[in-house]
Design goal:
Blueprint lengths: L31 H10 L5 H8 L3 H11 L5 H6 L4
Helix pairs in contact: 2-3
């Protein structure tokens, strides 16, 4: 007699809605538009906000800004309570 194998039932998992993807260059490459936006926003905005705007990770934005020599403005840093 053949034994019947028990088949595990698959549970339905709700899929997370993803944010709409922005068009950008190949992985790791930055478009001119992204670089220009980073230059404009970095000195006076939170890095997390910029990262969300660009659709990139916060650490990636920090590293790119550092490589470009960008810094937060003194006014912005004072608004955070830093010297």
């Amino acid at each position: 007699m053949a034994k019947k194998k028990k088949v595990a039932k698959k549970k339905k998992v709700a899929k997370k809605k993803k944010a709409p993807k922005r068009k950008r260059a190949a992985k790791g490459l930055w478009t001119k538009a992204e670089v220009n936006l980073l230059k404009k926003l970095f000195p006076t905005n939170p890095t997390s906000k910029i990262a969300a705007e660009l659709g990139r990770k916060t650490d990636t934005v920090k590293k790119k800004a550092s490589r470009m020599g960008l810094r937060k403005s003194k006014k912005y840093m004072r608004s955070l309570g830093r010297k």
